[in-house]
Amino acid sequence: MTQVVIVGAGPTGLTLAMLLAKRGIAVKLIEASRSFRRVFRGEALMPSGLEAIAQMGLWDLVERIPHRPLNAWEFYIENRPIFRVNEPMELGGKPCTLISQPAFLEEVGVKAKQCESFELIQGTAVQELLWQNERVSGVKLGDGRAIAADIVIGADGRNSIVRQRANLPLKQEYQSFDILWFTLPTSPQFASENVFYSLLCGRQGFGVFQGSQGNLQVGWSLPKNEPIEWQKLNWAEKLASASPDWLATHFRQQASIERPLLLSIVVGRCPHWQIPGLLLLGDAAHPMSPIRAQGINMALRDVVVAANYLVPLLQSQPNFATIDAVLPQIQAQREPEIIQIQQLQQAEVAQAEQLRNNALMRYGVSRLAPLIQSKIRQSWLDRQLQLRQGFTQVYLTV
Ligand SMILES: Cc1cc2nc3c(=O)[nH]c(=O)nc-3n(C[C@H](O)[C@H](O)[C@H](O)COP(=O)(O)OP(=O)(O)OC[C@H]3O[C@@H](n4cnc5c(N)ncnc54)[C@H](O)[C@@H]3O)c2cc1C
To answer: Which of 127, 288, 302 is the pocket-test mutation for ligand 1 (most atoms within 8 Å of CB)?
Structure first.
């Protein structure tokens, strides 16, 4: 039987392993961490990712785990409301939904473990690739074990060791900011509806929403070219000073705000996602910006396309040449959408930067909001269609 080894049990690796194992393909999934709990895991899913989950037959599972749809998006500049868009948007599809990623991974893992052809090796990292006749033939783990494979799939995220060991360079795009992430008790404001607030006040920008578990999540944009000693700041006051009154009161009511988590942003693409015997998918091939929550969605859509190619191939007892011939086709089908989505994300960042760097523009937009609101709203909405639904149709056919 053809043996697949997948490195990394994030959204990419675990869902692909489950789909392949359910179809009788032998899969070993190797995950460095002992559990699916993480200090931080993104959890916003767009209709494109939700649709991929449904096609994978995992929608029932989502209903059972902590999840929370968004009711609306609201934008504030200089503490004045600019515009609001309700979910689900008039663009169609399901509402953007926050799904607990550890719970999701845990449950997908349970499904995969029901398959005889599936094995999870957890708590030990892949350190090296094994090679035979200039083709990848397996992986070597931190504990010294060697695992043979007919095909290795690198799904080990943005700092992928598999990518580095395969000498597949990542073309990185400069990102002007990192993110400071806070988790706080929720505010009564979120009791009746979960709004994703984007706030820009002076040169300070951040997002606030209620996460899948009911806590308030705050992502503060930290410009790379304006270093501050963020560890020493009084964050309750800092957040309050850039917030409308109701939110400022909530921040000030917190006895203390724990030191945030610094999440460094890596965005880029590998020109080549594959070499003989090896394929990269998800963030390992194309680390995504957190802007408009695309990474998990793109990862799940990679998985659907990869499964469409790999399942019939691997069920047919292929030789190495046949396997290697299919891998570039997966990249060819996914790459155009990834390029376009990354460009759209960059355009969203550029627009926010323009406002951040131009006090006059901020003042004008905030004062004229009642007059120009519907135009700005429409222009934002026009840019959201592909960020919600993707650029191409992706259907699971196996
Ligand atoms: C601040 C921030 C917020 C984000 N928010 C969102 C969001 O709300 N919605 C969204 O869609 N996207 C979001 N993203 C992007 C999203 O997190 C990623 O695009 C997505 O997690 C990619 O999934 P993946 O499975 O490819 O990689 P990962 O989720 O990174 O999973 C990789 C897995 O591989 C394991 N691993 C790593 N190295 C090894 C090794 N050597 N051996 C074995 N295992 C290994 C890791 O432990 C991990 O479990 C955000 C990103 C950032 C930075």
So the answer is: 288
Atom 18 of ligand 1: nearest residue by CA position: 295
What H or E segment, with its residue span, contains residue 139?
Answer: strand 135-141
Residue whose C-alpha is closest to residue 270's, from 175, 338, 182: 338
Do the Cβ atoms of 195 and 72 come closer than 8 Å? Answer: yes
pTM for the model: 0.95
How does pLDDT run across 15-27, given as a tens digit for each residue? 999 999 999 999 9
Say if ligand 1 is within 6 A of residue 296 CB: yes
Helices (H), the chain: 11-22, 47-55, 59-64, 101-113, 161-165, 235-241, 245-253, 295-314, 320-356, 359-389
Confidence band of 90 (pLDDT split at 50, 70, 90): confident
3-state secondary structure at position 259: coil
CATH number of 177-264: 3.40.50.720, 3.30.70.980, 3.10.180.10, 3.30.9.10?
Answer: 3.30.9.10
Domain 3-63+97-173+266-347 has CATH 3.50.50.60: yes
Q: Which residue has the tokens 């990518």?
A: 163
